[in-house]
Design a protein that fits this description.
With 333 residues, this protein is α/β, with parallel strands linked by helices. It folds into two domains: 2-172, 3-Layer(aba) Sandwich (Rossmann fold), CATH 3.40.50.720; 177-331, N-(1-d-carboxylethyl)-l-norvaline Dehydrogenase, domain 2 (Orthogonal Bundle), CATH 1.10.1040. Helices cover 44% and strands 15% of the residues. The protein is built from 15 helices and twelve strands. It has helices at 10-19, 31-40, 83-93, 108-115, 155-163, 174-185, 187-194, 198-202, 205-225, 240-244, 248-254, 268-274, 285-294, 300-315, 323-331, and strands at 2-6, 24-28, 42-46, 52-54, 60-62, 73-76, 98-101, 121-125, 130-134, 137-140, 146-149, 168-171. The protein has an eight-stranded mixed β-sheet with strand order 5-2-1-6-7-8-11-12, sandwiched between helices. The chain has a four-stranded mixed β-sheet with strand order 4-3-10-9, with helices on one face. Strand 11 (146-149), helix 5 and strand 12 (168-171) form a beta-alpha-beta unit. The relative contact order is 0.12.
């Protein structure tokens, strides 16, 4: 099987490197990323699996979309803002590969379908965090199961992923999965503004209360729009804000598995702010604000987080809000 990964960032290198033992993988990305991979190979850690080293000659590295022309599957892992360009480039390269969107946000599969008429496009979901800890080292700091649209052309990819040791499931309710994932991804902005590792941030009730505010607003917008997020874990989506608001000790006891993240785990948005890159705040809190506005329900906490992250982007700085300070900001009239 030939698999092209379009977007060799943290998630792309993690998926491509892991799949290299089960498929012929081509990573498509920026030359600056590949300099280190050519020199050192690829090292993957975390996720409850042994350290995996992929030698440089085990991966094909390319900087242009034409490298995806003869692929059986193309895994798109670029940031949401680059999806339309990715679709145009893949369309120009030709081929008939199945395209899988392993991206944050709700609309990337639709954008890819519009730009790639006639091609099979599957929605996918990556539930865990991957951080680039050195130029050729990618660390999975949290756990979870990959999910993608069920269908006749899904099975071969799922089988290859399982052979490579990935935990993956084909689902028939991917729209609901994506809305549920959005609820969890609302923590990305809170974590980014905290400046803390995920474990430390989630261990503090004030930060969790910020996330709970955002989730309550999102759930209200979902109800107004008739959207039902899928249940993906032990806690139903509607009860997540309640659990987040529990005292620290009780939360740690009830959510022990959620806090089993290592000290290196942090949101990709925190990395973006630290490195002066544009974030996906528009596809996360911004999506909630837009949905709420369309259905006449308020979403002030999500709106304020959009403003705070945009301010940090403009300043090219990574702020460090305390939990109490950020919660007070989100509650302010």
């Amino acid at each position: 099987m030939k698999i092209a990964v379009f977007g060799a960032g943290s998630i792309g290198c993690h998926l491509g490197g892991t799949l290299a033992e089960a498929a012929d993988v081509t990573l498509i990305g920026r030359p600056s990323v590949f300099d280190a991979l050519r020199a050192e190979g690829l090292t993957l850690t975390g996720g409850g699996r042994p350290v995996k080293r992929v030698e440089a000659d085990a991966l094909s590295l390319a900087t242009g979309p034409e490298a995806a022309a003869d692929a059986d599957y193309v895994l798109v892992t670029v940031k949401s803002g680059a999806t339309a360009q990715a679709a145009a480039e893949l369309a120009g390269a030709g081929g008939d590969a199945v395209v899988v969107s392993f991206q944050n946000g709700l609309h990337n599969p639709s954008v890819l379908r519009e730009g790639l008429p006639g091609r099979t496009v599957l929605a996918g979901m990556v539930p865990y965090n991957v951080a680039r800890t050195s130029p050729a080292h990618f660390h999975q700091g949290t756990a979870g199961r990959l999910m993608l649209d069920d269908g006749p052309r899904t099975a071969p990819l799922v089988e290859a992923m399982k052979r490579a040791g990935l935990d993956v499931e084909a689902r028939g309710d991917m729209p609901g999965v994506q809305y549920s994932k959005l609820l969890m991804n609302l923590n990305n902005a809170v974590n980014a503004l905290s400046g803390l590792p995920l474990r430390d941030q989630l261990g503090q009730r004030a930060y969790r209360s910020c996330l709970a505010l955002c989730q309550r607003e999102a759930l209200a917008a979902y109800r107004a729009a008739g959207i039902r997020p899928a249940k993906m874990g032990p806690v139903a989506p509607g009860f997540m804000p309640v659990v987040l608001g529990l005292p620290d000790g009780l939360f740690r006891w009830l959510a022990a598995s959620a806090l089993r993240v290592d000290a290196q785990a942090r949101s990709s948005m925190q990395d973006d702010l630290r490195n002066g890159r544009a974030t996906e705040i528009g596809e996360l809190q911004g999506e909630v604000v837009a949905l709420a506005e369309r259905h006449g329900v308020p979403a002030p906490a999500n709106g304020r987080l959009v403003e705070l992250v945009r301010e940090a982007e403009a300043a090219q700085a990574a702020p460090t809000w305390t939990g109490e300070g950020l919660l007070g900001e989100l509650r302010a009239p």
